[in-house]
Amino acid sequence: MSLDPKISRLIRQDVQSMHAYAVQDSAGMVKLDAMENPHRLPPELQAELGRRLGALALNRYPDGRVNQLRVALAEYAQMPADFELMLGNGSDELISLLAMACDVPGASILAPVPGFVMYAMSAQLQGLQFIGVPLRPDFELDLPAMLQAIAEHKPSITYLAYPNNPTANLWDDAAVEAIVGAVGAQGGLVVMDEAYQPFASKSYLDRIAHHSHVLLMRTLSKFGLAGIRLGYMMGPQALIAEIDKVRPPYNVSVLNCECALFALEHREVFAAQARELVAEREKLLAALAALPGVTPFKSDANMVLVRMEGEGDRATTVFGGMKAQKVLVKNVSKMHPLLANCLRLTVGTADENRQMLQAFTQSL
To answer: Which tens digits make up the pLDDT trace of 94-118?
Structure first.
């Protein structure tokens, strides 16, 4: 059914030409397409959490308990002194709030591409220019191109996903510092997006206190709580205070808040799961590297980017073959020319990875 023309004129034309964010149907599938933690809470923790959630005052708006969560997250993340932390309904909301807060005349957002799609989407929806700077063919930062784009466009916000999505790699330290310095020199903000920090070999946290223009963003989605939608962002107090002014009131529900507090109290359970997934990632990388005509790329996240060598649209063929075997991964081959013939595989449990490798091998 088409939109009524009288209503159509009320909606921005660029919005009407967009595609909504697509979520693949995963019913009955081995779901390895969205970088989720495959582990559920142990039964005893499920029961304990259920009791806590059942006792909440759902008839009241969120209260000071949210501030307790901010304190708990600051302690968990080892936030530097004189920094502040704000919460979002997932990192997606924080990205949107940043675009809203920085929407001054001539503002723009810059990020390496391919990268997380919400950086560009937040810019478009807020009416800001987005500048995507292609990575090198090996998926490393093209430092000369990044520095040139920063000098030319003077972006308000520069995003560096650390590790990057969908390529799963960490950037070279010297290149990151050169970019942070260049952005700071022209008066812009840098956002280090550490969504996959639980699986990464290093963090930017130990360097963030040296810069007054750098924000560090994380999420509990990869920690193991993708379903509760909770992201957080740390930065200098005065800077966070300004961005926090555009945050909707009560953007974190009492259910989200209590689940997050509960998880932090049992952080050792999630840390053990992360260690298991890192071990499974290394096994998966080794198995993929042993297959002829297949190139897996180094990963510091809970995903592996893999390229099928050869002629034709190999990624779509393999993706379809895996889906027919009830294994769902992400076909990223059309997202950017650098990702031609690439699939993104989420690291699952040992059994899920075994099924994924079997389906992948049979579909080559």
So the answer is: 999 999 999 999 999 999 999 999 9
Say if residues 36 and 29 touch (Cβ distance below 8 Å): no
- Outline which parts of the chain fall under CATH 3.40.640.10: 57-266
Find residue 133's DSSP bridge partners.
112
DSSP string, 188-232: -EEEEE-TTGGG-S--SHHHHTT-SSEEEEEESIIIIIGGG--EE
Tokens read off for 169: 């790699």
Q: Does domain 57-266 have CATH number 3.40.640.10?
A: yes
Residues of the chain with CATH 3.90.1150.10: 5-43+268-363
In sequence order, the β-bridge partners of residue 215 are: 191
CATH placement of domain 5-43+268-363: 3.90.1150.10
pLDDT at 132: 98
User: For the whole model, what pTM was predicted?
Assistant: 0.93
Angle at 347 between CA 344 and CA 348, to 5 degrees: 130
DSSP string, 65-108: HHHHHHHHHHHHHTPPTTEEEEEESHHHHHHHHHHHHT--TT-E
Q: Looking at residue 341, what DSSP letter applies?
A: T
Six-digit token pair at 1? 């059914």
